[in-house]
Amino acid sequence: MPTLHLPLRRPIAAAATLLLLAAAAEASYLDYGDALSKSILFFEGQRSGYLPQDQRLAWRGHSGLGDGSAYGVDLTGGYYDAGDNVKFGFPMAFTTTLLAWSVVEFGDLMPPPEMRNALVAIRWATDYLLKTVSQPNRIFVQVGDPNMDHNCWERPEDMDTARTVSAVDAPNPASDVAGETAAAFAASSMAFRSSDPGYSDTLLKSAVKVFEFADSYRGAYSDNSDIRDHVCPFYCDFDGYQDELLWGAAWLRRATQDESYLNYIQDNGKTLGADENINEFGWDNKHAGLNVLVSKEFLGGNVYSLQSYKSSADSFMCTLIPDSSSSTHIQYSPGGLIYKPGGSNLQHATSIAFLLLIYANYLSATSQSLNCGSVSVGPTTLRQLAKRQADYILGENPKGISYMVGYSAYYPQRIHHRGSSLPSIKDHPQFIACKEGSIYFNSSDPNPNVLVGALVGGPGEDDEYEDDRVDFRKSEPTTYINAPFVGVLAYLNSNPNPS
Question: Which family does it belong to (predicted)?
Fold first, then answer.
């Protein structure tokens, strides 16, 4: 579970832009539709709670059915964030926002069955998140003791570690988790607006309420001494809570068109550091996504006071062009993958590819291009850069491996994931205790259960990948790697050779 508070590296040689775009411009024979289906299916493997009869990954069973009972509240449901059995509210909310944004931007490109599956995946999260804010002036931010959980290797169906509930009560702050949860509700309200207007309205009302909590009691949730040891060092707020306030307000503006939220992002941009750390986007740092999201408002209505957000979005996009004159650049591996140090690298590649496609659409709709110093960059260039990342992930890389489990004939077999690596409860109904799972963790055998659609952490800066479940930085899947890739694949399935 790496953080995103990472330094940028120098780019590959300037001529690499031509190589990257040439590779992306080639006719693609990848099955984006199959990858899209599997990227959504993955979320069923991460489900906590009582599983429905139409559960498609049948090797999973019910789990966490008593979550919240010790606190007198129902906190069943939601997702395990990665290969463990803890429910972390901060990355779960971000995952939900990105899934919903995928539907908002690219849902009309999804085949109807996959649109339905995407909404089901979103609702599995939002139903849980609604429970976390069901009590006034309180937000439940986590279920499970990660230190105890990480000391075991057991199936979620068997877990007997403490299901500790972590909550933040006013006036203690939780601006980061609450702000991201507000964004998740607002974005999801838009995703459900046509298919379930009643549920959409419920989500939007909850977004308004939880944003008020986030803004009224400002501060990072991980600064609370009562819960710090449970959330850190796993999902601490490393980059500050300010970006989540702007992010939540921006999504509420998008969902409601209420002038008060427009005023909020106009008036608070400087004080909340909207122009800081603009080259990051992930569960902990929302700046690049914030700037892209708000740029739509600037481009559509030319609201001059939002120009700084647009300028920051432009600057970020230019860092992705190796031969632009940007003072800093995103690093690429020799094989063309966006790379940032720290592990779980595909979280960067998928989220950045997602932003590339969204920003390309915003620019295309207003017939604009970017001026990256001496290089003029149009929407086609951005789309082809995004396609190159997707194609690399799906197998067009130096090792010829798909980093999506279950896609193509060659993919990771030994992923760092408890449920996947242990015998299914359906095949082995006997209880497997905390330490009894170690034999499976240390085994060199492939995982017995295929977590279809899971994107692993991915290769290092040298394009190397060893299929080793012990190396969690490379072999562990997470929900927030997959979520933006849903949108990327939805676009590419309809536009396999973007122009």
Answer: Belongs to the glycosyl hydrolase 9 (cellulase E) family.
Sign of CA dihedral 135, 47, 443, 452: negative
> Which residues have a Cβ under 8 Å from the Cβ of 102 and sit 6 or more positions away?
118, 354, 483, 484, 486, 487, 490
Long-range contacts of 407-411 (CB under 8 A, 24+ apart): 407/34, 407/35, 407/38, 407/453
Distance CA 461, CA 464 (A): 8
- Is the Cβ–Cβ distance between 23 and 337 less than 8 Å? no
Query: Under CATH, to which class is 16-494 assigned?
Result: mainly alpha
Instruction: Mark whether 157 is an active-site residue.
Output: no
Going from the C-alpha of 278 to that of each of 8, 126, 129, 275, 389, the distances in angstroms are 12, 28, 28, 6, 20
Do the Cβ atoms of 441 and 432 come closer than 8 Å?
no
Provide the 3-class DSSP secondary structure of residue 448.
coil
3-state class (DSSP) for residue 63: strand
Least confident of 210-224, 254-268, 301-315, 466-480: 301-315
Q: Are 274 and 212 in contact (CB under 8 A)?
A: no
pLDDT, averaged across the chain: 92
Asked if 51 and 61 count as a contact pair (C-beta separation under 8 A), the reply is yes
Residue 327: pLDDT band (50, 70, 90) is low
Partners of 195 in beta bridges: none
| Domain edges within the chain | 16-494
CA distances from 300 to 140, 192, 497 (A): 37, 23, 27
pLDDT at residue 436, rounded to an integer: 95
Give, in order, the Cα–Cα distances in Å from 227 to each of 164, 173, 214, 221, 224.
10, 12, 17, 8, 6
- Contact 362/302 with Cβ under 8 angstroms? no
Global pTM?
0.94
* Average confidence (pLDDT) over 18-47: 78
Per residue in 59-98, pLDDT (tens digit) is: 999 999 999 998 899 999 999 999 999 999 999 999 999 9
- Could you give the C-alpha distances from 222 to 130, 174, 228, 441, in angstroms and in order? 21, 8, 5, 30
Write out the two tokens for 180: 């991201």
Q: Quick check: is 26 catalytic?
A: no
Q: Hey, what amino acid is at 39?
A: S
Q: Are 156 and 418 in contact (CB under 8 A)?
A: yes
Would you state the pLDDT for residue 277?
75
Q: Which of 423, 427, 406 is nearest to 477 (CA)?
A: 406
Q: Which of 416, 428, 461, 471 is catalytic?
A: 416
The residue annotated as part of the active site, out of 44, 145, 314, 476, is 476
Q: Is 427 a catalytic residue?
A: no
Burial of 231-269, coded b for 16+ CB within 10 Å and e otherwise, reads beebbbbebbbbbbbbbbbbbbbbbbeeeebbebbbebb
